[in-house]
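A favour, since you know our C-alpha cells better than I do. Could you add the entry underneath, on a fresh line?
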Amino acid sequence: MNNPLTTVIRNLIEQKFGRAIRYSSDVDDLCDDIQQTTHKRLSVNTLKRLLGLIDDVTEPRLYTLDIVASYLGCENWDALLKQESGAHSEFGSIDEFQDLAEGDKFTFTYPPDREVTCQYLGSGNQYVVIESKNGKLKTGDTICVDHIIKGYPLLIENVLRSDRSLGPLVLGRFTGITTLNRLSTENDT
C-alpha cells in the first residue's frame, strides 16, 4: 500500500465503517455495509485490491470508485476527490511550487506512460501545456489547477483548447501523479 491516496481513502472508509480493516472478515462485513448503504455490491477481492490488501497493478474501474464515493457520502469519485483536496492538509500545495514566476516550467507523469510539461502563465492558477505525451492534454492547452501534488490525482478545473472550454479533467484518477519536477529556467545558472 505505497500509494498515499490509498491510505487516505482507506482511512475515510475505516472512519465511516467504524473500525480498522485488518482481516478478511472485516472486508466481508465492509462489503455488506457498502451494499446496505449504496444498494450496490462490490466483490471482496475488489475491495481488497482497492484497500491495498492484495497487490495489483491495475487501476480500479470508475464504477468501483463511484460506489466507494457514494458509500462515503459523495455523488461520485470526482466529487470525493474535490472534497478531500480541500478538506485535508495531506492535499496541500507543494512548497517548491509556491514561488512560481511567470515562465517557470515543470513536468509531471502519471500511469501508464503519460508525461506533461507545463509553463506557468503568471496569473492565478493557469498553466499552458508545452508538451504532452500519450495523454488527453495537447500542446497549447491552458489548464486551470489549484494544486499539483505527487501521489494524488490532478484535478484540472478547466481545459481551454483554442479558446474553447473543454471543462474539467482528472489525470491519474486513482494512482495519482507519479513524478513532479520543476525544470530549470533561463534565469537559473
Q: What stands out?
A: The chain has two domains: 4-91, 95-182.
